[in-house]
Design brief:
Elements: E1 9-16, H1 20-31, E2 36-39, E3 53-54, E4 64-65, H2 66-79, E5 83-85, E6 89-94, E7 100-104, E8 109-117, E9 121-123, E10 139-140, H3 143-146, E11 154-158, H4 162-171, E12 177-181, H5 191-199, E13 203-206, E14 209-217, E15 222-230, E16 236-240, E17 243-246, E18 250-252, E19 282-284, H6 296-317
Parallel strand pairs: 1-2, 1-8, 2-5, 8-19, 10-17, 11-12, 11-17, 12-13
Antiparallel strand pairs: 3-4, 6-7, 7-8, 9-18, 14-15, 15-16
Helix pairs in contact: 1-2, 1-6, 4-5
This protein binds NADP nicotinamide-adenine-dinucleotide phosphate.
Residues 56, 126, 158-164, 166, 183-184, 188, 210, 247-250, 294-295 line the site of NADP nicotinamide-adenine-dinucleotide phosphate.
């Protein structure tokens, strides 16, 4: 709990979010000998923590486990002096002297000369009946985490992007059948992932289709069926199903920045090539910024860029 009477801790650089962008920023900030605190209110590693394997991060010819990579990044950043506070930043204010006041939900209050927001993104929900009630009971946004619960069962994966296809292929290791349901007749995912999906024996594709309802028994904690509509014929089908994995994009965690920095239509913060916002000393990096490649390597690069610039900013202004 925050102690109201305790004076805020003063640090050089505050980093909000412990995914690849935040962890790389922490490494660079700490190695620049700035007092650096990283705030993480969920799981370190962000989206990669739940990725089975990361095969496109340079330096790992055989790929690396997402969680393993996140832990290694964190260990490296802490080795150079980054401190981790396991709390969520609930309020961010720009003070008159240009520093930032950060309030957390259990880690105390902080004042930082520069702040880097690397808060990542959360999964988009379908917004259909049954989705909320059955989340964690067969509805999941992380196949890497939950696919193993559905061994030898039939499951659905919704979406046609990299995440959906990658996670669907992973799920074929466990499920008897994986049905990938996509609203169009063509996948958005990278070709290499598509080829893997088309080659998987126990995978089927339901094109031009949307899931309209998820049925199940909340008390028993299980998904039992889904209602699917073909968007071209309007034909509605009820299909028995044991799980629904949903990968239809992400919403950036940019709430703290609302009213402080400009954003694009999708609520990603707009920054320049140095990850600078129009607010001096406030940087945004990784999936929460606009025009990002949304890869582990580019997020880490964003974080490093922001930290280097934040170090220069502190030298010039304080
Ligand atoms: P994404 O690329 O935005 O794909 C979202 C998918 O969901 C699209 O196929 C979209 O259909 C579909 N969709 C969106 N709203 C929907 C709705 N309401 N109902 C049904 N379907 C809906 O998102 P992502 O797959 O999460 O990937 C996000 C970013 O992370 C991308 O830049 C991706 O490259 C990256 N990523 C990379 C890897 C990797 O490199 N291994 C893995 C995961 C993610 P349409 O195609 O019709 O728009």
């Amino acid at each position: 709990m925050t102690n109201e009477n305790q004076a805020p801790r003063e640090v050089d650089i505050a980093i909000i979010g412990g995914g690849p962008a935040g962890l790389a920023a922490g490494l660079y900030a700490a190695r620049a000998l700035r007092t650096t605190v990283l705030f993480e209110g969920g799981v370190l590693g962000g989206q990669i923590a739940t990725s089975d394997r990361v095969e496109n991060y340079p330096g790992f010819p055989d790929g690396v486990g997402g969680f393993e990579l996140a832990m290694a990044m964190h260990q490296q950043s802490e080795k150079f002096g980054m401190e981790t506070v396991y709390a969520r930043v609930t309020d961010l204010q720009v003070l008159e002297d240009g520093r930032f006041a950060l309030r957390t939900d259990g880690g105390g209050d902080f004042i930082a000369k520069a702040t880097l927001v690397t808060a990542g993104a959360d999964p988009v929900k379908l917004g259909i009946p049954g989705e909320v009630e059955l989340t964690g009971k067969g509805v999941s946004y992380c196949a890497t985490c939950d696919a193993a619960f559905f061994k030898n069962m039939e499951v659905a994966v919704v979406g046609g992007g990299d995440a959906a296809v990658e996670e669907a292929v992973f799920t074929t290791r466990y499920a008897s059948k994986v049905i990938l349901i996509h609203r169009r007749d063509e996948l958005r995912a990278q070709k290499v992932l598509q080829e893997r999906a088309f080659a998987a024996e126990n995978m089927e594709f339901l094109w031009d289709s949307v899931v309209e309802e998820i049925h199940g028994d909340v008390a028993k904690g299980q998904v039992e069926a889904i209602t699917v509509r073909n968007v071209k014929t309007n034909e509605v089908t009820r299909m028995p199903m044991s799980a629904v994995f949903i990968f239809i994009g992400q919403t950036p965690n940019s709430n703290l920045l609302e009213g402080i920095v400009p954003m694009d239509a999708g609520k990603h913060a707009c920054v320049n090539a140095w990850m600078e916002t129009p607010v001096p000393g406030l940087f945004v990096a990784g999936d929460v910024r606009a025009d990002a490649a949304r890869q582990v390597v580019s997020s880490a690069g964003d974080g490093a860029t922001a930290a280097i610039r934040a170090d220069h900013y502190i030298t010039d202004h304080f």
